[in-house]
Structure prediction request, 103 residues.
Amino acid sequence: MTSQSSTPFPGEQVKIVRISDRQKQLDALPPPETKRWVMRRKAQVVAAVRSGLMTFEEACQRYRLSEEEFKSWMALLDRHGLRGLRATRIQEYRPVDERERSA
Prediction:
């Protein structure tokens, strides 16, 4: 007759870890080390701040963005929609006087 140990062996235990809804939503955002900012990624981060998932400061810190850059994403999104966040189109969406100064 063999006796069974009341303590399971390592690896036999199953832990159930519940990830909070907030963490799941944060994990769905672009990774913090993102270098290539396409329109969709910019819009996701702006939406996360506007929905209260993260603060403006948290977004700037997480993605190493300046306040001015992030504010420009919000303004372009408000003024021109998703297409305004396209980096190759930024010249088209700048005010005329700003374009003249950069020329």
In short: The CA atoms of residues 59 and 65 lie 8 Å apart. The domain at 37-96 is CATH 1.10.10.10 (Arc Repressor Mutant, subunit A). The mean pLDDT is 81.
